[in-house]
Amino acid sequence: MRILVTGATGYVGSRLVTALLADGHKVLAASRNLARLRRLGWSDDVTPVLLDASDPASARAAMDAAGHIDVVYYLVHGIGQPGFRDSDNAAAANVAVAAALPECDASSTWVASCPTPPKTRRCPST
C-alpha cells in the first residue's frame, strides 16, 4: 500500500514509519522540515513530502504531489505551543480537506491526534 504519514519526524510518526517499512509498504513521509527527515535512519527508504499542515495550500500541494495514496495517517500536533488548540484544529481540517480531494484518492484517513476540546470542557479522567 502507498501510505502517507504526516508528523513522520515525531515520536509516534517515526515509529509508525519504521513498522510500515518493515511490513513492506511504500511510505511517503511528510514533514514541514525535510532536513529533519534526513536525520532518521529510514530516510533513504521513504518518499519525502513537504507538508506544513497549518497552511491549506501546502496541504493541497503535498497531496497533489503525492499522487494516489491508499491511507493517510495524521499524527501532527503542537501540544505545549502557544495557541495549540486552535492551530491543531485548523491543521487537522487542512489535511482532512486535502486528503478528500479526488487527486489524492485516499481510501482512508487515520487520525491519531484529534481536535482539542474548548478550554471550558474537561476530558474525563480515568
From TrEMBL:
Name of the molecule in the record: Short chain dehydrogenase family protein
GO molecular function, a single term: aldehyde dehydrogenase (NAD+) activity
InterPro entries registered for this protein in UniProt: Epimerase_deHydtase (IPR001509), NAD(P)-bd_dom_sf (IPR036291), NAD(P)-dependent_oxidoreduct (IPR051783)
Gene Ontology CC annotations of this record: cytoplasm
Native species: Mycobacterium kansasii
SUPFAM superfamilies per record: NAD(P)-binding Rossmann-fold domains
All residue ranges annotated as the NAD-dependent epimerase/dehydratase domain in the record: 3-99
